[in-house]
Structures are given as C-alpha cells and as structure tokens.
Specification:
With 235 residues, this protein is α+β, with helices and mostly antiparallel strands. 25% of the residues lie in helices and 33% in strands. It is built from four helices and eleven strands, in the order αββααββββββββαβ. The strands form two sheets. Strands 1, 2, 5, 6, 8 and 9 form a six-stranded mixed beta sheet that branches. The protein has a five-stranded antiparallel beta sheet with strand order 4-3-7-11-10, with no helix packed on it. β5 and β6 form a beta hairpin. The longest helix is centred in the first third of the chain and has 23 residues.
Amino acid sequence: MQRATYSILAAMRLAARLRSVRRSIALVVACACALAAPARAHPHVWVTMTAELLYGPNGAATGVRHRWTFDDMFSAFATTGIKAKTKGRFTRQELAPLAQVNMDSLKEYGYFTRARVDGKRQKDAFEPPRDYWLEYDPKETVLTLHFTLPFKHPVAAKQLAIEIYDPEFFVDLAFADKNAVTLVGAPAQCAVQTHKSNDDNFPPMFQRLDRSFVSSEANVGMGFSFANKILVTCP
C-alpha cells in the first residue's frame, strides 16, 4: 500500500505528539512523585532559510523567493515511505506530491510570511506561491523547500518590512549565517537589514517596528517573539 503524502505541518504535529508521549513516559519512570512544570511551547522542526527580495525594472518589489532547509531528523521523517528510483536520493519529480501538499497546508498560515509597507501592515499582500519544489541533498540528508510569493501589487516604498515566523512556534525558522537575504534587481540606493526578535543587538529602527508589531498582532501566538524580520529601506 502506498504511503499517504502528509503535509509538513501535519507530519510536524504528529512528531510533536509522539515525542510528547515518550517524554511523559520517561518523566513518570524517572520520578513518579514529581509535580509537572507548566507546559511551554517549543519547536519540533528547525529550518535554516535564505530569502531573495525580487524587484522589477521600475524599482518596485515584486515578490519574495524563499529557500527553507529542514533539519535532518524531520527530513528523514517526511521522506519515509516515498518511493525513489535510486536509493537514498529523491528527484524533484518524486517529491512533487509532497511539495504540493505542503504548499496547500501552509496557505492557512500565510506561508509564514507577512509584509508591512511604510509601517502599515498589508493584509493578503501576496499572490499564491509560484515555482515551488522540494530538493533533497543526499550528502546532508536534508530537504529544502523552494517557493516564490509574488506581491499582488508591486511595492514601491521607502520602507518594506517582511516577517517570517510560525505563529504556533512548532517550526523554528532562522536565517542562514551567510548571505541570508539578498536584493535582486533593486535600485542601487536600497539597503537591507535582518533581525531576529530575541537578538538584543538590533538597531533602534527595529525596536520601533517590534513595538508596533506586538501591539497590533499580540494574538498570533508566541511564535511572534521569534519572528525573523527583513527591512529594506530605499531613500
């Protein structure tokens, strides 16, 4: 019987439940009399990401191109049961059903991507994703999800802020150490900065953005506290 293709989010939640059960059993065996500490949300999947902000000939931003690499444990879980022509390797075609189902499931969460233009939050800022596919690295044994989110309308602004995070904090997304964000086709005067909210060494401009985001989006869950921010300024 062929294995059903599960979304990243569905598989992630299943893995979380299984780990929770194992952890509970271990705690009971170790100390049956101990009082349980208050539960705190924590990630079960780790993603290292890079992003490209795409610009058109007129200097307006046209979209965001994501590249998310999942941790090896989750990658092994997600590919279990997928038939491959070559053992230990998966082609883009073999991973296509998994890519499709995952993009469908991420829609509910806005693809973990939000935009703010000149300080104003944009609702439904993006078109459905394009050019999405999964890549498997047989050496590192990890999956990488590629996809592009086009803006519904090109963005010409002095300040464009992009946030990337899972509001439920099941997935911990973090920028790559090198070349995390690049501008493609942007006007020469545009500059980009990146920041993660738990970093104490971020500039005052980000402090102002943090207060603004928290005041307007406090209901999205603790994942906001670990949001990755991209700020592009074009004087």
